[in-house]
């Protein structure tokens, strides 16, 4: 920002100049058997049909399934919904963006 | 992806499913979020698929979804 | 850059908004850097700052607007005294090129999304086709020559206030009617074009903006029609029998879901058509700017007062 020396050129960066800290994925369980898996429907057409089948497959593998839906696919899920999923689920699958 | 990123921050392993036209967008968004968010990509398009075709897409994706959510 | 920051009374480190898609805190200074890159003069900066606030509101939902594959972006309409004081164009070629303020304010807003938010075309911006207005789309309403209240007044502000209205829109489409002499005829004519906006089979779920040119507006002024009368008459010609636009009707597989058969629905939700007066004084044309998903699931128009 400073340009009080007339001969000095300051180059300004139009970007955020922030690189988010790299984080690792949270630890995974060995298996989903006996765990609760949240299925989060982003509410785009056809995603529910996809998740219906995923539910069948997960149930067959011994996992419990809890279903959720975002009010709209165009925005991140409301914080209350994310909180609910975090409390109730051991893992989550979100579908289906196209 | 913001949702999965948030849930991972809360300690819940997560994976998103998108059609394969979004592979590069997902990579860019992951860079912006700072987390290599787990994603599984299925064949585009989605909107005009029949129920049977959607079930097949899910069957084809299930192994990748399990791998993304479990330690292996 | 120092001169650019003198265009506003806000301090350089004030946070303006969280910019999607990366939800990055954006300061007045960062907006100013992008305004310089866009070619703005310092006096445009308050408009750019307010526009950034407007599109980053939850109602406008810039994240969704950016990520959609549809051809939409922010369309910015400036009302009030600031439009004239910074030399904005509301007349000839109003939706086109050639005016520095119109061209660079919209451009600066787009650069903020791209450079600060990380929303680059081909990255998070997934538009299948896009439109040239995504370079920047900003114009002023011709309030002085309009017989009607302005867009800004219609949205709850008064004429002494300067505002920017952000609308999520596609490129403008021309409506030609060079023969209508009566307001009744012209209204039917405009309605016929509005019925096909986005798709003839899209009803209530998407908004639109209608830019009425001075010569078309003269038909309404001469007949003594105000905005309320115009919209009421227009609505009568914007009703659809859902059976005609349902899935499969006329051999077209796209359309409303079968469950909506047997209803009558309006093309636009109440308040879903924004009407603005602008354009050159000669030419019996108006323009339609189609919108995107409206309501909480999509984008609602947002009007904000521009402060120094």
Largest sheet of chain C: 4 strands, mixed
The SSE string of chain C, one letter per element, is: HEEHHHEHHEHEEHEHHEEEEE
What is the percentage of strand-forming residues of chain A?
Answer: 15-25%
Give me the Rg of chain A, rounded: 22 Å
Q: How much of the sequence of chain C is in beta strands?
A: 15-25%
Low-confidence stretches of chain A: none
Helical residue percent band of chain C: 25-40%
The secondary-structure class of chain A comes to: alpha/beta
Biggest beta-sheet profile of chain A: 3 strands, parallel
Which structural category do the helix and sheet elements of chain C fall into?
alpha+beta
Give the integer mean of the pLDDT values of chain A: 90
Gross morphology of chain A is elongated
How is this structure best summarized?
The complex is a heterotrimer of chains A (98), B (72) and C (308). Chain A has 98 residues and is an alpha/beta fold.
What labels describe this entry?
heterotrimer; A: 98 residues; alpha/beta; 24% helix; C: 308 residues; alpha+beta; 10 helices
Helix and strand topology:
The complex is a heterotrimer of chains A (98), B (72) and C (308).
Chain A: E1 36-41, H1 47-60, E2 64-69, H2 79-88, E3 91-97
Parallel strand pairs in A: 1-2, 1-3
Chain B: H1 2-9, E1 14-19, H2 23-33, E2 38-42, H3 51-69
Chain C: H1 2-5, E1 15-19, E2 24-27, H2 28-38, H3 45-55, H4 62-67, E3 73-79, H5 81-85, H6 100-116, E4 138-140, H7 151-154, E5 163-169, E6 172-176, H8 183-194, E7 206-212, H9 214-223, H10 227-236, E8 239-241, E9 264-266, E10 273-277, E11 285-293, E12 302-305
Parallel strand pairs in C: 3-4, 7-10
Antiparallel strand pairs in C: 1-2, 3-5, 5-12, 6-11, 7-11, 8-9
Helix pairs in contact in C: 2-6, 3-6, 8-10
């Amino acid at each position: 920002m400073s340009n009080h020396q007339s001969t000095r050129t300051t180059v300004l960066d139009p970007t955020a100049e922030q690189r988010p800290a790299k984080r690792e994925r949270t630890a995974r369980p060995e298996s989903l058997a006996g765990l609760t898996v949240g299925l989060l429907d982003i509410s785009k057409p056809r995603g529910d049909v996809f998740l219906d089948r995923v539910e069948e497959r997960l149930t067959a593998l011994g996992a419990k399934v809890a279903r959720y839906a975002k009010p709209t696919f165009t925005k991140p899920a409301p914080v209350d919904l994310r909180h609910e999923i975090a409390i109730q689920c051991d893992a989550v699958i979100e579908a289906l963006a196209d | 992806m913001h949702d999965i990123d948030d849930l991972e921050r809360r300690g819940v392993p997560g994976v998103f499913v998108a059609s394969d036209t979004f592979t590069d967008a997902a990579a860019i968004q992951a860079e912006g979020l700072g987390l290599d968010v787990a994603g599984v990509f299925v064949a585009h398009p989605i909107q005009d698929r029949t129920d049977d075709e959607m079930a097949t897409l899910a069957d084809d994706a299930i192994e990748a979804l399990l791998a993304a959510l479990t330690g292996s | 850059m120092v001169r650019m920051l003198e265009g506003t009374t806000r301090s350089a480190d004030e946070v303006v908004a969280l910019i999607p898609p990366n939800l990055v805190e954006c300061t007045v200074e960062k907006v100013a850097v992008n305004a310089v890159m866009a070619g703005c003069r310092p006096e445009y900066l308050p408009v750019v700052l307010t526009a950034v606030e407007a599109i980053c509101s939850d109602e406008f939902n810039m994240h969704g607007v950016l990520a959609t594959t549809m051809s939409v972006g922010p369309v910015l309409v400036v009302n009030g005294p600031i439009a004239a004081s910074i030399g904005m164009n509301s007349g000839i070629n109003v939706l086109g090129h050639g005016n520095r303020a119109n061209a660079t304010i919209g451009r600066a807003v787009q650069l903020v999304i791209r450079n600060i938010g990380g929303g680059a075309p081909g990255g998070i911006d997934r538009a299948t086709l896009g439109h040239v207005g995504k370079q920047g789309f900003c114009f002023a309403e011709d309030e002085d020559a309009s017989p009607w209240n302005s867009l800004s007044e219609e949205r709850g502000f008064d004429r002494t206030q300067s505002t920017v209205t952000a609308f999520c829109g596609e490129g403008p489409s021309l409506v030609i009617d060079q023969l209508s002499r009566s307001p009744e005829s012209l209204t039917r004519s405009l309605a016929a074009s509005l019925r096909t906006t986005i798709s003839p089979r899209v009803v209530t779920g998407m908004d639109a903006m209608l830019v009425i040119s001075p010569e078309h507006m003269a038909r309404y002024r001469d007949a003594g029609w105000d905005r309320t009368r115009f919209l009421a008459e227009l609505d009568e010609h914007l009703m659809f029998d859902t059976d005609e636009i349902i899935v499969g009707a006329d051999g077209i597989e796209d359309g409303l879901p079968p469950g909506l058969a047997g209803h009558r629905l309006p093309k636009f939700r109440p308040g879903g058509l924004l009407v603005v007066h602008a354009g050159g004084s000669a030419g019996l044309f108006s323009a339609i700017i189609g919108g995107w998903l409206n309501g909480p699931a999509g984008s609602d128009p947002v009007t904000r007062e521009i402060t120094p």
